TrEMBL record:
The gene is FAM107B. This is Family with sequence similarity 107 member B. Residues 40-78, 101-130 are annotated as: Disordered. The keyword Coiled coil applies. The keyword Transmembrane helix does not apply. It comes from Homo sapiens. Keywords: Coiled coil.
Length: 130
């Protein structure tokens, strides 16, 4: 490669080109990072050179596995939990039946209510005499 003409001339009026300073290499953070990388390389601790896409895909896969495990843990219920759910459903059914009976009694005509009261009083009197 041919050198430019101004290098051969010793003309003091010419401004000689100088190599520009790279601000990245002169920064303290870059020097510390470079020093750390060199030390890791000497120890044999090379950083993982995975592409960013592969890193993202691995993170998604990990998140998916964690989510699946959580869902499975929620689906698997102990015998106690199953029994408690059954009891809770039975209690809810009983409450609904009681509410229906009360609504029917409230909507029933007056003579049906009086007849029911007479039956109860008649049964109570019969039990008291025994």
């Amino acid at each position: 490669m041919a050198e430019p003409d101004y290098i051969e001339d010793d003309n003091p009026e010419l401004i000689r080109p100088q190599k520009l300073i790279n601000p990245v290499k002169t920064s303290r953070n870059h020097q510390d990072l470079h020093r750390e990388l060199l030390m890791n390389q000497k120890r044999g601790l090379a950083p993982q050179n995975k592409p960013e896409l592969q890193k993202v895909m691995e993170k998604r896969k990990r998140d998916q596995v964690i989510k699946q495990k959580e869902e499975e843990a929620q689906k698997k219920k102990s015998d106690l939990e199953i029994e408690l759910l059954k009891r809770q459903q039975k209690l809810e059914q009983l409450e609904l039946e009681k509410q229906k009976l009360q609504e029917e009694q409230e909507n029933a005509p007056e003579f049906v209510k009086v007849k029911g009261n007479l039956r109860r009083t008649g049964q109570e009197v019969a039990q008291a005499q025994e």
